[in-house]
Task: structure prediction
Amino acid sequence: MPLVEVIPNNATSTVAPRWTYVVDTGYDPSKVAFNPKDRKRVPARPGGPRGDTELSARQQTAIARRIAELSRDNDPKQVIAIPWKGAAAKTQNTRRILQYQRQIKHWLDDEEALLQQAPPPRAPAATGRAAALRRRSTLASIPPTPAEATTAEATPAPTAYAPQPNPELDSILSVEKSRPAPLNPAELEALLSAPPLLYGESHATLGAGGPPQRRFCDNCGYWGKIKCLKCGARICGLECKDAHEATRCLKWA
Amino acid sequence: MPPKGWRKGQTAGPRQTLVLDNGAYTIKAGLVTTGPSSKPTYDDCHISPNCIARSTRDKRTYISSDLDECRDFGELAFRRPVEKGFIVNWESEKAIWEHEFMNEGKGGLRCDPKETNLLLTEKPNCPKELQKNCDEIVFEQFEFASYYRSVGATFNAWHPSSLLSLPQECLLIIDTSYSDTTILPIYFGQLLQTAVRRLTVGGKLLTNYLKELSSLRHYNMMEETYLLNEIKEAVSFVAPSSEQFAKDLERTWKGRVGDKRTLDPSIVVDYVLPDYEQSIHGYARPHDPEKYRMRRGLQPQQGPREDLLPLGNERFAVPELLFSPTDIGLQEAGIPEAVMQSLSVLPETLRVGLLSNIVVVGGNSLIEGFMERLESELRVLVPAEYAMSLRRGEDPIKHTWLGAARFASQPELLKQVLVSKAEYDENGSGWLGRKFAGEI
Ligand SMILES: [Zn+2]
Ligand SMILES: [Zn+2]
Result:
């Protein structure tokens, strides 16, 4: 008995590998625009919102391992000695730093661990930048508050055009409608003084509304229409199934 | 003639600045004169590999620009100081900098750090500990006269290519480089930190992916990083749309038992591998099934012996990861969606400004079809009433460097940000870290 399972390939199947970027999958890209307010930012893990529930924990581990392999900068097994006789370490600090043989993952793990223990006080950058920059701005902006105006130096902002609300005009002039709200000084100030995100927080997350994950043949890269029952990998046909079993099959198990 | 060291007492510091865009794959560097008549150009930027390479075949170790002398890239092993875009290994980075920039070195640039300012770029979201290591090495080991470190992309606001007044008010940089791809909204040269977004996919991951696929499907090429990178650069293209991607996948499929297909030679190519005796570099040509069967011993060999690597869906499925990272199970959005996520946390006025000035930098932007796909997918995501202007930097590799060089050439700008060694010695690296972060 062949160890394969044929995946139905119809339009309603969530695992249909033939998704296209048109609406027939029920996915409308314009609907996702600007929607995700992903305030809580976490590092990406396999099997996220668009990932499949069909992946076993072991498969997910295997995928994570493979991605780590593909994004590796240096081979830890590879030792290349430096033939260059440069200057000796000049201070205790630099002697220590020059001796580090850590990889980036160690530094990032440290950062994560620190965050777990106690979120570091995120000192905001010095304030008062926004007012100075906004004075040069050509964008529509709300005039500075009296407090801001006094802290800001000499010349006040050349008042950029700020549209006055006029409901009647709004309904007639669609152009007017599309004009964005003026820049709010406090909001701009907050944006400019916000501290950087941690590395792990900076990843673009996978929104729930995106296209379903495409599945490819583990051997030849064509659509993976068939699932290997031994390990769960996808293959395109019996020929590739043989090749898959001879090469990577158990790697994914 | 002024006495030796006459500048030391002056606050202005040296008039020479080493502008260093220290990428994981290549270093972009040049010495820039600070002064009103200084107008650095792309020609002032020198590119050298940021690595130390070791060949088991000629038993040589190559430091950075030494690689120009290498004639056999087979099984060449690399040691790279920069990981995920950040300087991690200072033992090797120090060796490379000394070799490339210092007076006793062999590389193209010469400077005495004590008489030179350093303007160093970094990637966004760098761990603080690594920043501290970097600052300590710059002042305590190299002893630069003064120094400024900032996220590289922000300097693009001073790039002279634009008709806009400088610094550009709203600028959205998409930096798709070796280490990763980052989305960076910039307001008057300042990074809007909360809106920075990153994709793990960069040139390195694409090369490693092609290496994995070629090794699985044809030869073991796991030790041939140099070659696979060269092949990637020669044959890759981004499909214009996911519909076209699906069509190209059909054109490159061998079919199955009972349903054999012929490979479309207008898309499948044979890469003639270099033998490092007669040839140092390989080349691609349209797929020839006959030659391929000969190579596999299925047909007697005629003419000179050739090693061929056929490339079909690898040509477009590899760079496709920039637009669809989930194809390898990476749970991240592709570039167009990452841009939207970045903009989504900003006020509408800034979104409008940023969308009207998007500049793409970094080597992956040179992949055929990349800009067209990015533009068309972004256009679908961006609401129709917003104008959008997207362009690739004239020289996407050196674009950031030139912006930084133009910044460094202007005394009044540089003066505001440079920190002198004396200030560092007085206040220490903790203080310096806070200063560069804009906290003091
Ligand atoms: Zn297959
Ligand atoms: Zn299997």
About this structure: Residues 29-248 of chain A form one domain. Strands of chain A lie at 4-6, 226-228, 234-235. The longest strand of chain A covers residues 4-6.
